[in-house]
Amino acid sequence: MPETERRVQRGVEVYNDGLAPLVVMTGGRAPRGDIEAEVMKNFAVELGVPEDAIRLETESRNTIENARFTKQLLSGDGGAERRPQVILVTSPYHLGRAEHLFDCAGFDVEPTAAAAPPNFLRRIGFRVYEVMVSVYYGFIDQCGRARGE
Fold it and tell me: Which of 43, 80, 108, 113 has the most C-beta neighbours closer than 10 Å?
């Protein structure tokens, strides 16, 4: 099962367990031209999530923008709450970085991991990618960018 499907499947489980009143799909245009959030929404609907329980953030190109644009999107859904609570669903090797960025953007974050890929080499590859991105993030103000500064 591809990475995106594992993430969506875990998000649908969280929704079906009654832990979240809505599901936010994030992600802009992928290299092949699809809008990632829309692809995820379609899969979630196939899995039984009602369309009116799904919000889309379709502009982000990275995790920093996922956090910033999701905060903007949700500020229209009862945004008087200073630090809205979210259950953040992502891959296990991505969870720490994503949780940090969503915290920077102003969320109270409860992280939950999607299933890891069954292939050991793919898991190693994703971990190496996360290390490389973390090194890059060390040279920028990632929290400031997540807040939109």
Answer: 43
CATH-assigned architecture of domain 3-147: 3-Layer(aba) Sandwich (3.40)
Are 23 and 55 in contact, with CB atoms under 8 Å apart? yes
Q: DSSP secondary-structure letter at 24?
A: E
What are residue 54's DSSP bridge partners? 23
Instruction: Return the axis-axis angle of helices 120-137 and 95-105, rounded to nearest 10°.
Output: 40
Half-sphere exposure at residue 23, Cβ-oriented, CA atoms within 13 angstroms:
31
pTM: 0.86
Catalogue the E-assigned strands of the chain. Answer: 23-26, 54-57, 85-90, 108-113
**Strand segments (E) across 4-73:** 23-26, 54-57
List the domain boundaries for the chain.
3-147
For residue 80, pLDDT beyond 70: no
The phi and psi torsions of 47 (rounded to 5 degrees) equal -85, 0
Specify the amino acid at residue 107: F
Q: Check residue 119 and give its pLDDT.
A: 75
CB 101 within 8 A of CB 64: yes
